[in-house]
Amino acid sequence: MATNETCRAIADVTRAKMLSATESPVLVKVEFLGGLSETQKAAFKGVADRWV
Predict the structure, then answer these.
(1) I want to staple 11 with a disulfide (CB 3.0 to 4.6 A). Which of 18, 20, 25, 44 is the partner?
(2) Per-residue pLDDT of the chain (52 residues; tens, 9 = 90+)
């Protein structure tokens, strides 16, 4: 059975305030439930990191 894996990327509060005038930063959470290759997981993690 595959182990679930979670990737979380949270924007910096100062950056969120500067870019969008909010104190509530973006939170990107991706849960890998199995079936993805390491390359596919890396692609999702890269996208999440670009949002922060």
Answers:
(1) 25
(2) 567 888 787 878 887 788 777 777 777 787 878 777 889 888 877 877 776 6
